Amino acid sequence: MSIIQQMNSKLANMIAAGEVVDRPASVVKELVENSIDAKATNIMIEVIDMGMGSIIVTDNGMGMDFLDAHLAFDRHATSKIMDESDLGHIMTLGFRGEALAAIASVSKVTLKTRQENTEGIEVIYHGGIFVKDGTSTLNQGTVVEISDLFYNTPARFKYIKSDLAERQAIIDIFDRLALAHPNIRLTLVMDNKTIKSTYGTNDFYSLIDQIYGSKMTNGMTIFEQTVQKIHITGYLLSPQIARSRKKDISVFVNGRYIKNYKLVQAVIDGYHSFMMVGKYPIALIHLEIDPSLLDVNVHPQKYEVKFVNESILAYYIETYVKEALLKQTHQIPETLKNISKGLDETYIPLNLNFGEAVISESKPVYETQNTEKTPKLPDLEFVGIFSGTYILFQNEEGLYLMDQHAAAERIRYEHYFNSLAHPNPAVKHLLFPHHLQLTSDDISVISNHPKKMNAVGFYFNEQNDLVGLPIWLNDSEVEIAIEAMVSMIVEKDAIDLAILRDKLAKDISCKGAIKANKALSLSEINSIVKNLRACENPYTCPHGRPTLIKLSHHDIERMFKRVV
Ligand SMILES: Nc1ncnc2c1ncn2[C@@H]1O[C@H](COP(=O)(O)OP(=O)(O)OP(=O)(O)O)[C@@H](O)[C@H]1O
Ligand SMILES: [Mg+2]
Question: Whose CA is nearest to atom 19 of ligand 1?
Fold first, then answer.
């Protein structure tokens, strides 16, 4: 007896829906993309309860007629392509004709729409089933209201992440849609509060400031190039605004945000000598390409596209980013200029600003550590400095080269790692509130999680300016510390102290170690050796590079072929 049955369309839609709408943020994406395709110039997104209460997208686009307002809910029904030949030149964001059907199959949808000089229409679907239709009053355009998302798919409902992760996912989608469409006015309202809005004036300076926070475009570099029929525009924010995540490097193709590892890496490589290790820039790359050189039909969410010549494109992007940043050298801060110079001349400036406790000659820093257990550096006799970077030592076993930068990083890392071990650090109250150069997303996380911030010693006033910080943290390192904590709250919804300690200590030690250009005095070299000796793991920097290399007598004699 045959046991295979054709699925009914309702079940097939629900199964397929999972590919298109996996979370509230993807509903926002699909609805706004529809509004953009309908040539809207003003789009408002209202979200209640992270999208699980309701999502309403209102646009002033072309609207739909009565029949289309019903057909829009059918699977594989689209106004954007007619036949397979259209797949070769897609210029709209949607084309698969499945998003509304997918959303409707897992929620309750009210669609109101009105074309120019016609009456407004309302159509209601619950769980993909038509409920009713009628007339409606509204301005020209479309309003789509989604409520009770995933009410009929409890398995999906259960896997929706924490409130904060959903909130951030919606904001991220909004940011990308806005950055992709500078000519459209977009507003995001969450739980009746306007979170972000853009002017739609085609001005990237105000757009980027609206998305990332005020004055973020200070020191921004823009380049524009055309290569092999691809028009590339880059908006490169100052390398000083360093982020710990790559997510603020955005690539857009013909107004579509895409995920492309190679092209993102090309931007990172272009920034390479201008950024600190492990830090990433905020940058936008807009590509305008003849759609016949692209395949956007790779994945239902359309985040992936296939380029004809991706590697060459990556090469050009890296080159243009590098050239543009180099041209702007007058805007690169002193310290960063020193690093790029340093890379050519193998000179890496060192900052020995460990704070009093660490640099003190008379008092070892890690007095409390059990010196028996920690690995020890051998006794070292200072010989000299090679190339401004390597300190040479000798003892009866041979010659030692210490990378002063790596050693300083290790010392700073352990200092901060240990400082951060105290769960309730003493707080330094600031006389004047300190205004931080953080993105608006960071600020919103901070203002929503005062308790988590207070628990690790950070206090803010109502303007989100810093008014108190842990006593162990240098004022100049505040931004990097806060950014690390914000990314942890966003990713984990909590500050995991162990991970934070490691991450912060790495970030801060790295930043501090390239901050100043300071030649070493003998007492500072002594201080390095003493402090490195006290470290738990003195032989590598926090990123795993060696701090000390030994050339034994035997090695040297072998090099001179005195022995074989
Ligand atoms: N806001 C809107 N304004 C005008 N028409 C709309 C709007 N939203 C949807 N439509 C119409 O409904 C159709 C179906 O929308 P749907 O999102 O399901 O498919 P699509 O956008 O064509 O393709 P995709 O599944 O790739 O998004 C669209 O092709 C469009 O004609
Ligand atoms: Mg669509």
Answer: 97
